[in-house]
Design a protein that fits this description.
Blueprint: H1 2-27, H2 35-55, E1 59-61, E2 64-66, H3 70-73, H4 81-84, H5 87-107, H6 112-124, H7 127-143, H8 148-159, H9 162-173, H10 175-185, H11 188-206, H12 216-232, H13 240-259, H14 282-305, H15 309-319, H16 322-342, H17 355-379, H18 381-384, H19 394-414, H20 426-439
Helix pairs in contact: 1-15, 2-5, 2-15, 2-16, 5-12, 6-9, 6-19, 7-8, 7-20, 8-16, 8-19, 9-12, 9-19, 11-12, 12-14, 13-14, 16-17, 19-20
């Protein structure tokens, strides 16, 4: 009893200290900072997390354990993806933030390699502990007799969030070119890739050139990222135009999904022939227009609301660990489901979609949140810390980050073990660490003062 009280006191004291630090940081925020951007970054990730937690639907009956996804289990839930698919918000918010950062670097005569090192560190370094964890956990699970197929599926689901890093990474690497294109061509730098995405989709559906469709990862998400520059420079969706963007995007989304070859769900449905996200298709651009217009409409309200110190402090607090929340939320979910299976399917015996299942889902989400908080408190040090040593050259950073991103993409697609043999997927597991080493994200030695190739960070 005394020990429990002591632990509660320690937790309370730590919470107060963390909140006090957030309040202090919030109070020192420059008045010109666009706080709505920070709020939307955190909010979009939280929506993704909740969406993943809701859609996962494992259950246990007399025949054993089953893995299901609510989008494939109950078709009506596909409408929820029109609310839960918020990656476009994250990408044009990212464009806004990257534009500010790059403009500041140009103004201060900071070279690309230094700017890139700062962006890559917080984006990619937090993924490395996650990969290492699943390499060890997958190996131990197979040794313990867990079926390789189950380990592969569990790790694949847990590592799916890393696909975002691999795609967003490309947008970050191309910021100097993309920002330059915006300054020279304005909205044409959005419409050109969007128009090319239309042609790619036409080839995909009309000519069955499915391999060609993967180009849309760059075209669709690159176009969305360009809208962040439009927002930064206060162009495009202002006033009545914001309404046109929102209503036009929503109307186009309805037309595409009701009368075109595109599915209604705006995230992938297991077993479906076509996914709007893999590769990206035109409904994501329609959704982008709707979300962009809506954000511009509520922008003023967000500014006023975030003027409240407590609301802004909460935003600062969440943003300081948001990448860790994003990367680890599915891992926590899968581990807790695994514990439930060991406990004879406790909490998993309600049939997905039933009334009792939805009640249990609320309890599960609460449990996921409680379990995620200490995990994030521990792993967020890799998100907030900065590497020592010098700044590697730009080519080295680009090459290393691409290798790292490719490895993450392979893990998100196939998991950490081969489903038949149970052997670790050695190459995909090694690539993120090899890329991080090349890019200077880990084991980066400090160069002597005056050495060529970088400056102390």
């Amino acid at each position: 009893m005394v020990e429990n009280r002591r632990k509660s006191f320690i937790i309370a004291a730590m919470s107060i200290r963390i909140w006090s630090r957030a309040l202090d940081l919030a109070a020192r925020t420059p008045p010109q900072r666009h706080r709505g951007v920070d709020f939307l970054r955190a909010a979009s990730i939280i929506v993704v997390v909740i969406g993943h937690w809701v859609m996962a639907a494992p259950w246990v009956d007399d025949s054993g354990a089953h893995i299901a996804h609510m989008l494939g289990h109950q078709e009506w839930i596909q409408w929820l993806t029109w609310v839960l698919q918020v990656m476009p918000v994250f990408f044009f918010v990212g464009g806004f933030a990257n534009g500010i950062s790059w403009d500041a670097a140009v103004r201060d005569h900071k070279p690309y390699r230094e700017w890139l090192a700062g962006r890559l560190g917080r984006l990619l370094r937090p993924a490395l502990p996650l990969v290492l964890f699943w390499a060890v956990a997958g190996w131990l699970a197979v040794l313990a007799g867990v079926p390789a197929g189950m380990v592969g599926v569990a790790s694949q689901i847990a590592l799916v969030p890393t696909w975002f890093l691999a795609v967003y990474l490309l947008a970050v690497l191309l910021v100097p070119i993309a920002r330059g294109a915006w300054k020279r061509f304005g909205m044409a730098s959005f419409w050109v890739p969007a128009g090319l995405a239309v042609l790619v989709d036409a080839a995909y559906f009309q000519l069955d050139m499915h391999g060609f469709g993967w180009i849309n990862y760059l075209l669709v998400w690159g176009a969305v990222h360009q809208l962040g520059f439009a927002w930064l420079d206060d162009r495009c969706a202002r006033g009545g135009r914001a309404v046109l963007w929102a209503l036009g995007g929503l109307g186009l989304l309805v037309l595409l999904t009701e009368f075109g070859p595109w599915p209604r769900s705006l995230v992938g449905v297991p077993g479906a022939e076509v996914s709007n996200t893999t590769p990206p298709h035109l409904p994501l651009l329609a959704l982008t227009a709707f979300q962009f217009g809506t954000v511009r409409l509520v922008e003023g309200f967000l500014r006023r609301w975030l003027g409240n110190l407590k609301a802004w402090a909460a935003t600062v607090l969440v943003n300081g660990m948001i990448m860790s929340v994003f990367l680890w939320h599915s891992t926590v979910m899968m581990l807790l489901f695994g514990v439930a299976l060991l406990l004879d399917g406790a909490g998993l015996k309600a049939y997905p979609g039933s009334g009792s299942w939805w009640i249990m889902k609320l309890a599960w989400i609460g449990l996921f949140l409680v379990a995620l908080l200490p995990v994030v408190a521990f792993v967020s040090r890799w998100e907030q810390g900065a590497p020592g040593g010098g700044t590697p050259g730009a080519l080295r950073q680009v090459a290393g980050s691409l290798i790292l991103g490719f490895g993450l993409g392979m893990l998100a697609y196939g998991g950490v073990v081969h489903p038949e043999s149970g052997a670790l997927a050695v190459v995909p597991l090694l690539l993120p660490f090899l890329g991080a080493l090349i890019a200077g994200l880990i084991f980066n030695r400090r160069r002597p003062a005056g050495a060529s190739g970088g400056t102390p960070s």
